[in-house]
Structure to design on (145 residues):
């Protein structure tokens, strides 16, 4: 199989954007000048300093897409009105399908370090936008063949 080398067409600097409660994220995908990457809707790098009391993402709604969160440092706690709950730490991920709609929160858990990670939003195909919401943790300790 032969591969073709490609050149980088554009470099985009992340833009600091206020989100949630007292949080500034660094957004690449999801900006007005870079909005044609469907199914990828948004890519944020988040950092919540350990001394930022009350900072996080309190209850808020989502619909029609999925979020994938990956933690580098610290811990984040997910809770939603469907009854799902989970805490992820460094190297762990969570996958939430908003589907027909979900109200959830993501808040840092005191761990003595900053909570840092990434979140990617992925658009669901039109035929799946009204599926039931779901949530799953993916632990770094799970070894899959």
């Amino acid at each position: 199989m032969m591969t073709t080398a490609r050149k980088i067409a554009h470099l985009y600097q992340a833009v600091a954007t206020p989100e949630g409660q007292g949080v500034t994220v660094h957004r690449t995908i999801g900006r007005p000048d870079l909005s044609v990457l469907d199914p990828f809707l948004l890519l944020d790098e988040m950092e919540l300093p350990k001394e930022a009391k009350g900072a996080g993402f309190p209850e808020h709604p989502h619909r029609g897409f999925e979020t994938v969160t990956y933690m580098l440092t610290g811990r984040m706690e997910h809770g939603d009105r469907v009854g799902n709950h989970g805490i992820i730490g460094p190297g762990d991920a969570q996958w939430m399908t908003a589907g027909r709609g979900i109200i959830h929160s993501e808040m840092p858990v005191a761990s003595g370090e900053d909570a840092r990670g990434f979140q990617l939003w992925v658009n669901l195909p039109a035929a799946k936008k009204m599926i039931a919401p779901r949530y799953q943790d993916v632990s770094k300790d799970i070894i899959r063949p």
In short: The radius of gyration is 16 Å. The mean pLDDT is 92.
